[in-house]
Design goal:
The protein is α/β, with parallel strands linked by helices and 468 residues long. The chain has 15 helices and 18 strands. Helix content is 38%, strand content 23%.
Length: 468
């Protein structure tokens, strides 16, 4: 949870024991120190015990938050006692941070319900949430209504919340690169640039002619090209790849990474066929895989909405993502299917990956023009899948998320591939088809669907189907 800063509001109500507020402050500072989280909160001299209760306290806390708005990724509302619901809501309204908010309330102990230790935070949390709803401020809740912050359960809840902050903050300022036009045969990779921009996601474009032109001006003995060739050969087995193809792949890497750096891009989606093979003579898959492995996700077929889902999954988990086809049924098992693509998955998914050719594309474009595809099999483990789609007719952004697992079931085929088991897979496929979702999905080797659903639906306002 490093490099995260949370604003903290400790609620208080004057006729409850002050000792509870001081204890809560110490608990949170211990937790934040262990989790490497930075805190922005009132000091104990700024208000009574550094808590928020009155309008004056709310103004002071909001001023502190506004002064640190560039640092604050989310806000934790802590209720050691009933708290003051107006104080909490007023603070957030005045601060205007527009970041995720988590509401936590301490549990009462049955043997400590005397006036000296009574909390009533169980009730106070309801009042705080009622006010946040009235003020139009979205918020997140802990799984249990009351929970002590020093329990392992709350630490897991806090990790989820921090991930939601990363997702929301990352997507609201994401910069995506579109390289080339979508393949003419794929209406499925259409998207609304304006709808994405309304969510804070900007798209920069570069034509493939610019890529090819810049690459052509790079000499084979250019130091940057030679360095990229070394990186490619060190990334995956490349013994069968001709030197001329390695040089072309390296030049693509130099051009694409220079462009991303110049435009501060977080991710790319690239026209990977058929102009790439016909006019340049290689597949760009390995270069895309290397970028995704470096947490710079890259999607094929100019699937901008697809790479948004890849980036969201990466923000949720801190791990590389990949773009896949929901490609094949797995025999007669209705809850299993095959994920497949020519070969641009991050190496994290493909232990022992080898760089070769793309047989399907090669059947029409010439196998000799498809060097650069990455082949390998994903081993057993968890998987979260997601799809983002811009609904131009409805004027909104839609998504679905869910979890399953990679399996070690036999699979005799080529390319980047995996067998996946998803509970009630036919139900998911019906949802995808009925609602016109694309054949592409993003995947991540983690279990983070709940984090993603909460961030997208509650804070970004997208329409989300969470398959469970």
């Amino acid at each position: 949870m490093a490099n995260v800063t949370l604003g903290v509001i400790i609620g208080n109500r004057g006729f409850f024991p002050d000792i509870l507020v001081g204890e809560a402050r110490r608990d949170l500072m211990k937790l934040f120190d262990e989790a490497d989280i930075q805190a922005v909160l009132l000091d104990e001299q700024a208000t009574k015990l550094g808590a928020v209760e009155t309008w004056a306290h709310a103004k002071r806390c909001a001023e502190l938050f506004r002064a640190n708005r560039d640092r604050i990724d989310g806000v934790l509302v802590c209720l050691p006692n009933f708290g003051d619901e107006k104080g909490v809501a007023d603070t957030l309204k005045l601060a205007g941070l527009n970041v995720p908010v988590l509401v936590q309330a301490y549990p009462d102990d049955l043997d400590q319900l005397s006036p000296e230790r009574r909390r009533d935070a169980f009730c106070g949390k309801i009042s705080v949430c009622n006010n946040l709803r009235q003020y139009g401020i979205p918020f997140s809740l802990t799984e249990d209504h009351t929970i002590h912050p020093l329990t392992p359960e709350f630490r897991c809840e806090l990790e989820d919340f921090v991930a939601q902050c990363r997702i929301v903050g990352g997507l609201r300022k994401a910069r995506i690169g579109a390289v080339g036009a979508r393949p003419d045969a794929f209406n499925t990779t259409r998207f609304s640039e304006k709808l994405l921009q309304s969510a804070g996601i900007s798209v920069s474009t570069m034509d493939l002619s610019e890529v090819f032109g810049r690459a052509a001006r790079l000499a084979d003995n250019d130091a940057r090209v030679k360095a990229r060739i070394d990186e490619i050969c060190g990334y995956a087995a490349a013994v069968q790849v001709p030197g001329s193809a390695l040089s072309k792949m390296a030049k693509l890497a130099v051009v694409l990474l220079d462009w991303m750096d110049a435009n501060d891009l977080d991710a790319t989606a690239i026209q990977c066929w058929s102009s790439m093979q016909e006019n340049f003579g290689v597949n760009v898959c390995t270069v895309m895989s290397m970028m995704s492995e470096r947490l710079m996700p890259s999607a094929c077929e100019v699937d901008i909405a697809g790479v948004v889902a890849m980036y969201a999954l990466q923000l949720a988990s801190g791990r590389p993502s990949a773009l896949v086809d929901w490609n094949n049924n797995y025999g007669g098992d209705k809850n299993k299917c095959v994920f497949f693509h020519c070969g641009n998955w991050a190496k994290s998914f493909l232990p022992g990956a080898e760089i070769g050719t793309a047989p399907i594309l090669g059947s029409t474009l010439g196998v000799e023009n498809t060097y650069g595809a990455l082949a390998g099999r994903t081993p057993a483990g968890p998987v979260t899948f997601a799809r983002v789609s811009t609904d131009d007719v409805g004027g909104c952004i839609r998504a679905y998320v869910g979890e399953g697992r990679f399996t070690d079931d036999p699979l005799a085929t080529f390319g980047s591939r995996a067998v996946v088991e998803v509970p009630e897979l036919p139900k998911l496929m019906r949802h995808i088809c009925r609602n016109g979702f694309e054949h592409h999905a993003a995947m991540n080797a983690s279990a983070c669907a709940s984090r993603l659903a909460e961030a997208m639906e509650n804070y970004l306002g997208w329409s989300v189907y969470h398959h469970q």
